[in-house]
Amino acid sequence: MKTSSLIIAKILTLCGIVLTCTACYAPGNAEFEVKIKVDGRVTNASDEPVEGIMVTVSVPSEDGYKLGSAETDTEGKYDIQYDGWHMLTAVDVSAEDVDEDENGGSFAAETKTVAIDSSDYKGGSGGWYKGEAVKTADFELEKIIDTPDEE
Questions:
Q1: How far is CA 125 from the centre of its chain?
Q2: Among 86, 128, 93, 133, which residue's Cα sits nearest to residue 110?
Q3: Using the 8-state DSSP alphabet, how is residue 120 labeled?
Q4: β 122-123/105-107 pair status
Q5: CA-based Rg of the chain, rounded to a whole angstrom?
Q6: What is the CA 6 to chain-centroid distance, rounded?
Q7: What are the pLDDT digits (tens) for 45-95?
Q8: What is the rounded distance in angstroms from the CA atom of residue 130 to the CA atom of residue 114?
Q9: pTM summary value
Q10: Of the candidates 77, 137, 72, 65, which has an alpha carbon nearest to the alpha carbon of residue 98?
Q11: For the chain, which end, N or C, has fewer CB atoms within 10 Å of the first or last residue's CB respectively?
Q12: What is the widest separation between alpha-carbon atoms in the chain?
């Protein structure tokens, strides 16, 4: 009888641990350690805004884990926010023309690596929350193909 009581006690302990972990980390209940916001503007060589450029923020690595993306607006601006569990020391920011010729031509893709220093994280609580890092990455893309004028 002692063995079965011991087994039941271990099973109940394990169930309690699983339920506790599930409650803490369930979607919607999780609190993130850091926030990273990357914003900027995409222009052409004449400093005119370029709409319809897909800007992607990813972890600099072979796999390039994607943190978020946004398409530039009519002013060439974008804004991407990532809520995560780890303080990153850098992100890759890529700009790629995805709207074919709707923005007046085709533009060459470009990628920049943006460094994030630990001092860039502001507003941390000193406990689990390390703060928010705000970085800017502007692009001047080279036009590689003009769109023919419509008559």
A1: 22
A2: 93
A3: G
A4: unpaired
A5: 23
A6: 48
A7: 999 999 999 999 999 988 879 999 999 999 999 999 999 988 899 999 999
A8: 19
A9: 0.73
A10: 72
A11: C
A12: 92
Spatial CA neighbour of 34 closest among 111, 92, 112, 91: 91
Contact in structure between 51 and 72 (CB atoms under 8 Å): yes
Q: Tell me the per-residue pLDDT of 82-115, one tens digit each, with 9 for 90 and over.
A: 999 888 999 999 999 987 666 677 889 999 999 9
Alpha helices by DSSP H, listed for the chain, are 2-25
Q: Which residue has the tokens 């394990």?
A: 14
42: part of which helix (H) or strand (E)?
Answer: strand 34-43
C-alpha angle 70-76-80 in degrees, rounded to nearest 5 = 25
CA separation for the pair 9, 146 (Å, rounded): 73
Task: Show Cβ contacts of residue 127 under 8 Å, excluding neighbours closer than 6 positions.
Answer: none
